[in-house]
Amino acid sequence: MDFGDIAGRYESWYGTLGGRRADRLEKVLLDKLLKRLPWIRTALEVGCGTGHFTRWLAERGIEAVGLDISPAMLVQARRLEASARVCPYVLGDGLVLPFPDHAFDLVAFITTLEFIPQPERAMAEAGRVARQGVLVGGLNRHSLLALRRRWRSLRAPTIYDQARCFTVGELAQLAQEALGVRLRGMTWRTTLLAGTWPCTDVRLPWGGFVGMLLELEGEGNG
Q: What domains can be seen in the chain, in order of their start residue?
């Protein structure tokens, strides 16, 4: 999928009212999950786009690398580094990661698996490269937000029309099949629930955004 047409305006969404709310709630949830692995020092974000979450990982003190298949997205990511902590960005395919086994403590997919043609293969590659865990942030197919998105697409097509969104159960099954015996633990929660829901995240499978941490057996886990 070519994101070149939207690369220049992709980051601006985070400056909108809805974008700021989503960004805050998603990061609260992902941060809570990452606290389960406090020894994470290095991370690879697959499908980093403009580097929005790669920079966030770096702000948490993690040595973060961003990888994306779109040269145009990486141009924007490097441009946005001007006033932030510098992260390396690599042109590459999530289906064939250009890194050796156990190269990073963590591999992250933040709204990425939806756009990868073979998400099972991408998850298996993440398991090969990760020492300690895989962090997934995804768009939930079983949510009011997804329903609204589908209705809007009838009037004006968007990039999300090409996305394959997952339910919580589907993400869990994908992880179990792709990671096999290395999967030692799975924690998930959702956020972006309807209206003014008072909780930032819940263990209910209907939030618009799913956060899932997959803890791995093997090197680096003592």
A: 7-216 (3.40.50.150)
